[in-house]
Amino acid sequence: MASNETDRLSVQQLYGEIWNEDEPAFEAAVHTSLSPRHADVLYDLFATFGIGPGDLVLDAGCRDAKYAVELVRRHGCRAVGVDPVAPHMDRATALVAAAGMAGSVFPMRAAIEALPLRDGAFDAVWCRDVLVHVDLAPGLAEFHRVLRPGGNLLVYQTFSTDAMEPAEARRLYAANAIIAANMAPSYFEEMANSAGFAITTRDVMDSEWRERWAEEGSTAPQDALLQIARLRRQEDELVGRFGRARYETAWGDRIWGIYQLLGKLCPTVYLLRKPA
User: Fold this and answer.
1) Is residue 248 part of a domain?
2) E strands, the chain, in order
3) CB atoms inside a 10 Å sphere around CB 221
4) Which tens digit of pLDDT belongs to each residue from 179-224?
5) Which residue, 157, 143, 88, is CA-closest to 113?
6) Rounded to an integer, what distance in angstroms lies between the CA atom of residue 87 and that of residue 65?
7) Residue 194 belongs to a domain with what CATH number?
8) What is the span of the domain harbouring residue 182?
9) Rounded to whole angstroms, how far apart are CA atoms 72 and 13?
10) Domains in the chain, number
């Protein structure tokens, strides 16, 4: 890709050479699936921890507890779901009851940085798409504290890449309540090591899930792009009616997946272990 004025293609190269001749092999490459993985790969990775009946799992930042419910369904374990947002607790309580798991999944309102849980009580921690909002040093230290020796932690987190422009990053982080430092994988790894964890696996998901959903027929990317266009063209009106915060949050929500497809954001899974 042209990166500066000296790399700029000439008109002859563009129209007389590249666009003047078909390149079937290139077109075949970009029209062929790369066999992207499904989001359920997270459950497969978690299964490598060997969790089973009698084990206790922490779902950190559980929101409506759907992941905690699924982990219990798959492994026959028990789970505690913590989240600091009150409406999330209402939804979690309702979902757990509807799933018939009131005796196996226990929602609890709490911040990750200060867990009201016993030392070494948990066999594993599941933390999906949450740590961008968390003060990492105390948050990871709390995970280490509540895990038993030899316990494991799965973290799914989205990081920024070099393709993210500074102005884009500032707007996105502000809109999505993101702590900027947490968007660098190097910082996450530094904090994980400082907390006492050994990083056993780093699996870069990149845009795989979004590609898979699109290949399976989801219209989410084109819907998001259409809504971004509508947001952009009536920004003043929407901000006047609903406020800047709601407008920016709507933009940030819709641009998130697009930025993954463009390579500006890169979802990554880490498996970490507390040494025995």
Assistant:
1) no
2) 56-60, 78-83, 105-109, 122-128, 147-160, 198-204, 265-273
3) 17
4) 999 999 999 999 999 999 999 999 999 999 999 999 999 999 999 9
5) 143
6) 12
7) 3.40.50.150
8) 41-209+263-273
9) 59
10) 1
